[in-house]
Design brief:
The chain is mostly helical. Helices cover 65% and strands 0% of the residues. It has one domain.
Amino acid sequence: MRFLLLTALQVLLLNNIQLSGYINPYIYILFILVLPVRFPKLLSLILAFICGLSIDLFTNTAGMHAAATVLMTYSRPAALRIFSPRDGYEAESVPSMNKLGFNWFVVYASVMILIHHFALFFIEVFTFSEFFHTLTRVLFSAAASLLVILIAQFLTGKFEFEK
């Protein structure tokens, strides 16, 4: 259900937001961000591919979203290890603001969003000749995506600021 809702929001609403060509928020990656910590790696990569490919089908982007989402998902276990809470994760822990706190989620989501956006935008231009222009797009879009994802997290449950 979450997958369909996030895909619909992305395709019907957020894909139509492009401020000066620099800001393109992406909420569909929230589906991957909040998969359970102990979710099987192969299954998460398959879901990431399907998630990215579904956006590609609606936006005619020839696999760019699928590639970026798979890379982000491939990097996810390392990020979860690096940002692991002092006591570790609970058995069925979900990396969300509700479960692990605001600060933890902002850091985790920011890193994952930056990985996704770097891959997506550099695949899109497929050159380093305008590196700083593309980097600017990555940073502004990542900030917008993080804002949209945080709003979605606020709207979907209670959260704790002190964890």
